[in-house]
Amino acid sequence: MIKEAMIFGFVFSVASCFVSCSSDRLAEFGTMTYNDCAKSRICNIRGQASVKYIDHVKMINLKTSSGDCVNISVPNESIMAFKNRDSLGTKTYTGHVFYLTKASDEVAVTINGRRIGVGECSDFIVFVE
Hints:
five-stranded mixed beta barrel, two-stranded antiparallel sheet, disordered N terminus
């Protein structure tokens, strides 16, 4: 029971400052594991980032220190800044967690007006505002 309350408190705190807090403020909460993110509505995860085309959509493929892979969707303006770079080094991303399952004819979905490639390496994506 205490563990659930602590996790809820963490998620609530991150959610309450999600849009308005700086990355320094979010850093004080620490990063989450792949499994923590998979069970959360908000995820703050760190790993080796690379730009990938996933179902014809440019996205971030994040490899965590434990070897797990997470698809990250960042705003189009951000992804365009990485135009000629495949590897982005170690990065931390915070965003809403969305579960996506791939239908055989589905190449991408739209979330909040942004095209998202349906998972290459995880059953969920982290949607960065």
